[in-house]
Design brief:
The chain is α/β, with parallel strands linked by helices. It has 2 domains: 256 residues, Type I PLP-dependent aspartate aminotransferase-like (Major domain) (Aspartate Aminotransferase, domain 2); 133 residues, Aspartate Aminotransferase, domain 1, CATH 3.90.1150.10. The chain is built from 16 helices and 12 strands. The strands form 2 sheets. A 7-stranded mixed sheet has the order 1-7-6-5-4-2-3, with helices on both faces. Strands 8-9-12-11-10 form a 5-stranded mixed sheet. Helix 12 runs parallel beside helix 16. The chain is globular.
């Protein structure tokens, strides 16, 4: 194989994001293909026994096993790192594999984590249920409150873990403040950036140490495959994350990596258009529903902070109905265009009821503490004509008395 574009990383780092999304990390075979090659292989052969020994000893560059390296996956990792402004990236099998790996690779019994209270249900399961099994304690806080981060620090605190905007409450974390605070105490920040992607928000620009993704979402963005990614410094990725990943195996399949590579080529176009559509739909919904949680609207209590950190509002927002689960379900059932689905980041518009889906297993008390009521609905606005989406929502709202 030969790298015919992006070989000089000093040059590729100067490319603008739209160029990196198309060209970054590209490797071509002797056939000179323009689209990235798909390498469906689990292992590799060697010219001689000495070569394989040298590779396993780290003395010779080259592939050894697809749990460690695969050419297609490696291209994706390089491209995501360039777009994120990170030194290195490791792809994961799913978004939750990325979150689990990013935490467990650096935590041990006796360590402490400060985590945002508002988070995806499975992320809360990690901090509330999984980490305690290994003797790792956690404190969940209102991530919007800067003072709460400082107050939660303990002598054994090793990680700050949060997503912004948060799923599904749309809480915004002051990334720069929290990361600066963490650095002053030797704490590693892990930021879940799945709601935005690097096109809308780059947490490392505000001091984040590690950025984790469900690449299933906007990066693929078309509902095709599961994927995840973790970005950080080359030292942290190679010395902290890689030993865990090498020996536990949450690796991304080459085919899924290839699909995400294709998704990255249109990521900026999709993310920005979906943000425009979401803003148009949000403006229609504002005043029509009792409560709307939309970071692109001035009514959002953290609108100014969102504008500072995010290039656009993103495709996702939530709103709350006064009629509880029955009214929320009735609205979902009245939709004709928008799909009922628990996914996000898709090019199709999707809506879900978090209390009965993504956050169901947390229990009512925990959901209430997070601000997830029975009347909350979360919408992912896609690439359809926003006027058609507004018409669909208007019909559904009228059917439920709004």
């Amino acid at each position: 194989m030969k790298r015919t574009t992006g070989q000089n990383r000093a040059i590729t780092k100067t490319w603008r994001p739209a160029t990196q999304a198309i060209r970054g990390g590209t490797v071509r075979t002797e056939f000179g293909e323009t689209s990235e090659a798909l390498f469906l292989t689990s292992g590799y052969s060697y010219d001689c026994a000495e070569d394989v020994a040298a590779r396993f000893a780290g003395e010779q560059a080259g592939m050894t096993y697809s749990r460690l390296q695969n050419p297609t996956v490696e291209m994706l990792e390089e491209r995501i790192a360039l777009m994120e402004g990170a030194e290195a990236c490791r792809a994961q099998a799913t978004g939750m594999a990325a979150m689990t790996t990013a935490l467990l690779c650096q935590l041990s019994a006796g360590d402490h984590v400060v985590a945002a209270r508002a988070a995806f249900g499975s992320c809360r399961w990690l901090t509330d249920s999984l980490l305690p099994r290994f003797g790792i304690t956690s404190t969940t806080i209102d991530s919007r409150d800067n003072d709460a981060w400082k107050a939660a620090i303990q002598p054994n605190t090793k990680v700050f873990f949060f997503e912004t905007p948060a799923n599904p409450t749309m809480d915004i974390v002051d990334i720069e403040y929290v990361c600066t605070l963490a650095k002053s105490h030797g704490i590693t920040t892990v930021v879940d950036n799945a709601f935005c992607s690097s096109v809308i928000q780059r947490p490392m620009d505000f001091g984040a140490d590690v950025v984790a993704y469900s690449a299933t979402k906007l990066m693929d963005g078309q509902g095709r495959v599961l994927a995840g990614a973790v970005c950080g410094t080359e030292k942290w990725i190679n010395e902290t994350l890689l030993p865990f990943q090498r020996n536990t195996g949450p690796n991304l399949a080459p085919f899924n990596a290839w699909v995400v590579l294709k998704g990255l080529e249109t990521l900026e176009l999709r993310a920005m258009r979906q943000s425009e559509n979401a803003l148009a739909v949000g403006k229609f919904m504002e005043g029509r529903v009792p409560t709307i949680l939309h970071p692109g609207l001035e009514s959002h209590p953290q609108y100014a902070l969102a504008k500072k950190q995010m290039k656009a509002c993103g495709p996702i927002f939530s709103f709350i109905l006064d009629g509880g689960r029955r009214q929320a379900h009735d609205l979902l059932n009245a939709l004709e265009l928008i799909d009922i689905s628990n996914n996000i980041g898709d090019s199709r518009s999707l809506m879900t009821h978090p209390a009965s889906t993504t956050h169901h297993n947390m229990g009512a008390e925990a959901r209430e503490a997070m601000g997830i009521g029975e009347g909350m609905l979360r919408i992912n606005v896609g690439l359809e004509d926003p006027l058609d989406l507004i018409d669909d929502l208007d019909r559904a709202l009228r059917k439920v008395g709004l």
